[in-house]
Amino acid sequence: MTFPIPVSRKWLLAGLLSVTVAASGTTAWSTPAAAAVAATHAVTASEYEAFLKEKLNLALPASVAKGDFLAALAEALGAKTEGEPVVFKDLPATSPYYAPAQALYRLGVLTSDTVRASDRLSAINAVQIALKAADLKELAYTYPASKVKQALAKVKLNPATLGTQAAQELAAAIDTGLLPPAYYADLKPNAAASRHLSAVLIGQTLAVKGLYKHYLGYASDSDIYAKLNDAYQQSDIIQAPELRKIVDAALEESLVTGYNLKDARYDANFVDSLSLVYGHSDLTHALQLIGLLRSEGIDAKVQFEPKTSAFVYLKEWGEPGVSDQYEVRQIANGNYIEYAKEYDIAFEFDNLTDKKRFDDVVHAYAKKNKEDQTGLIAGSWWQPLYYSFTELPSYRLITNNKIDGGRYYAQSFSLKEKSAEVVEGFRRLDPAAVITHKDFWVDVPFFNYLNGESL
Questions:
Q1: Which terminal Cβ of the chain has fewer Cβ within 10 Å, N or C?
Q2: How many CB atoms lie within 10 A of CB 159?
Q3: Does the global pTM surpass 0.85?
Q4: First CA to last CA across the chain, in angstroms?
């Protein structure tokens, strides 16, 4: 059951949530057409290389030595080097490759006391290392000879020329997709691993371990609407009582006028240069927004990020009622804090041109400019909220003030010049809290709202 929402409350839900204002796996495809779509979505070497560069500041050389690969892999995995030193016969502790080799040895990725860090990396060895780093070795060692032979036939390798364990590792890498079909031809005896193959194997390893990007699918996928529906229905209002204690106090003191709670497990981890984050509360709006992008010829990865937005609900608006879309808690002055179920959708576009076009599309079809306006998608707001972590023409710089609570985090947006006040207020309310602030670029209507303007 739903209850009428006061007009002023609707306005708040459309623009206020989460801000500080100026005053303060494998898919089975059933048709050839679907298979063709899947092929267009295969992750390329350049995409993995961009991720490694932008997210982890890693770039492989044109000619990849084994030590280069080990160092990049260990860094990407965040492999730790604590514990007793490992003695390698050919790698002194003073070598720049020693620490990553030690970390990977402790993980069971390296199993020999001879590293050969300066040797040119071979394609076969790169696949073996990646398979172990992806935690797939137990699967590999279940392979009987018949299964190994069948898999290696795809890459035209004779199992007899390899050791039993090596053959099993390669076969499992092929069957699991760790080695994509586009790189089957690279897997030849004595062939060196290219920079592209090396980047792909590191990226695939991160993906298997859940350390790469997270997304439901692409806007162009035939099942994206079902996935978005499921994600929304499965999301709930985030509780996070310890975080709420801090930011609710900030609300009661009028330090902020709103905040978000989010779950870090759903963060998209997209490449910043190609991504935007769009916030809203209405599922129909999200579904129509995906359709709008498709109608404009724009494709993008789509990630649903559950979000709870909180703000002060004034007692003069009347009884807040009950709904599965929000909860309320009365505070000392008789007002309420409302916690509303919302979401962010993170998009990673195929190219920068499409990312820039998004602003024009929203202004044309998803931004309200007058009452009873027609020609807009459902649930369009006066001040839509979307932002980028890289600079874009016509966007404006503001600040995200964030409290990290581990799995959950709280954030409140402010004008850049107000950020220090907000951060200092958070620290006063909880000196032990982990508080950060980061500048980012937001659409003009929302920036205007932060400045107290109606449009």
A1: N
A2: 18
A3: yes
A4: 32
Specify whether the CB–CB gap between 301 and 446 falls below 8 A: no
d(CA 125, CA 155): 15
DSSP three-state, residue 124: helix
One domain for residues 297 and 407? yes
End position of a domain, from candidates 208, 229, 246: 208
DSSP letters, 68-123, are HHHHHHHHHHT----SSPP-BTTB-TTSTTHHHHHHHHHTTS--SS---TTSBPBH
Give pLDDT tens digits for 299-318.
999 999 999 999 999 989 99
Q: Tens digit of pLDDT for each residue in 171-185?
A: 999 999 999 999 999
The separation between CA 330 and the C-alpha centre of its own chain, rounded to angstroms, equals: 35
Q: What's the pLDDT at 217?
A: 97
The number of C-alpha atoms within 13 Å of 422 and in the hemisphere containing its C-beta is 32
Domain boundary among 148, 173, 208: 208
Q: Measuring CA to CA, which residue among 59, 94, 100 is closest to residue 77?
A: 100
For 406-444, list the strands marked E by DSSP: 408-415, 434-442
Six-digit token pair at 412? 């409140």
Beta-bridge partners for 322: none
d(C-alpha 109, C-alpha 128), whole Å: 9
Print the domain residue range for 89.
42-208
| Number of independent structural domains in the chain | 2
